[in-house]
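Action item from last week, closing it out:
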Amino acid sequence: MRAWRAQAREGAVRVHAAPNGGAAARVGLSTAGIRGAVERNRLRRRLREAARPLLPGAEGYDLIVSAGVEALRVPFAELAREVGEATGRAIERARLPRGGQGRPAGQNGGDHPPSRGTIAPHPGATP
């Protein structure tokens, strides 16, 4: 299983993004919890069309766009806006070190305690 680097959610839509090392954007669609084939395929078509205009700006990234049954009740213009905003934030977070945490790996901000897994010496211990 691939470890996805960043995700963002907007309304009924969730987008996962990770660099793919290529020149093209690749998009996967996920329809969560929709049992009927007609509704599932209708949602896939709506998500595909909402994501299509975003592909030129997503070059070099793999995207998974997922939504549940609530996305079928949203007007298409709103769904397209949600997909666009979530995609933009997910790609922005994927560009940051450590999946969008905002700090380069290994830096904890100076005054923060060491991260979990690091053994810090006891304040009264002698070297």
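Closing note: The domain at 6-95 is CATH 3.30.230.10 (Ribosomal Protein S5; domain 2).
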